[in-house]
Amino acid sequence: MSDTDQVTFTNAKFGEVTVEATSILTFPDGVPGFERLKRYGLVQIDEEAPFLRLLSMDEPAVGFVILNPQMIWPEYGPRIGPEDLDGLELEKADDLELYCIVTLNSDPAKVTANLKGPIAINTAKMLARQMILVDDTFNTKHSLLDASKATQEAKAESR
Fold it and tell me: 113 vs 1, 103, 153, CA distance in Å?
């Protein structure tokens, strides 16, 4: 891959960041609260797995930590209608991936994931949209620590 296949931008927290051009997400409508910011670099750091960084290329101070919720909550399957996916130009269901924004805290018990507002990504075209679910099954502050403990307990019981 040549240097022209990479894009470098500045982030207030991480400094100069270089991503593959194929790791740039476009949010046609922006992210709720940040509607004017359309382009984000998706950064994967091995030591931070399963978390990813979603860093604005338009505003150095804006960035999010995201996570594939099914890695923590395997049963997560929100009801998503075609209108929720408007603007993503999806051609195949296999091109759809869901992520959620994580709120970090120095206290691990207070690290939460927003399952009410998943981010849908068309991985073929790198188009994304954050949806706000009308379903009351999920909320904006699901504890990752509680979910991890529940998963470990379920595995222990199945042995």
Answer: 35, 6, 20
